[in-house]
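Q&A log
Question type: sequence-to-structure
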Amino acid sequence: QLQLVESGGGLVQPGGSLRLSCATSGRGLHDYGVGWFRQAPGKEREPLACISSSGASTNYADSVKGRFTISRDNAKNTVYLQMNSLKPEDTAVYYCAARKGFCSYYASYYDYWGQGTQVTVSS
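Response status: OK
Response body:
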């Protein structure tokens, strides 16, 4: 069983930055593709970015391309989501998810999910 824990959320002003972390304990994350998703109240879960198990391949949704960067440190069993130029519409609960092998934008492909971390962008 892989347990994922997100951290780094909070309240930030428009234009600000946050870095989210997705960490595991026990089993290593190096065999897993990891995706970041978010869900705002009343909306469906939205894929944001994913990264391959080695970190060599990354993909981004158009809504965050150029503003968000996904990265990983397999030695620390952690995947990051650096979020810059944040907008009020980025307000949501952010989740990381993991699956063996390649990453995906399809939430149903993932076997493991974190509990989520709230990001609020407001002045």
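Response note: The chain has no helices and eleven strands.
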